[in-house]
Amino acid sequence: MANDVTTQDFIRFLNATRAQSTCPACGKSPSKWGLFSSNWEGNDDAGEEPVMELLFHRFRKVREEDGKPYGVSTYAMFCQSCGHVEHIYQPVVMEWLNANPAKRA
Ligand SMILES: [Zn+2]
How far away, in angstroms, is 23 Cα from ligand 1 center? Predict the structure, then answer.
């Protein structure tokens, strides 16, 4: 997909927007975070450059006009010590990446 966010770009976003990597659940600092990305074990579609998997959180109510679900999209990561899962709202990541494009060689 054209709008895929590479794990490299996601890490760039985290490094630029976070003061520290401490896990808010277990307090471990620095915490090691695992990314929900395309290079998870068993994914046959994993490309050369891993991309972040987009999660969709469906709201319970549906759109009145056509009955389709709506909700929000996030990227996610987990603390490798305690399993705490943290979601980052996708539009914020996209906005930051558009304003701070990667310097490609
Ligand atoms: Zn933790």
Answer: 5
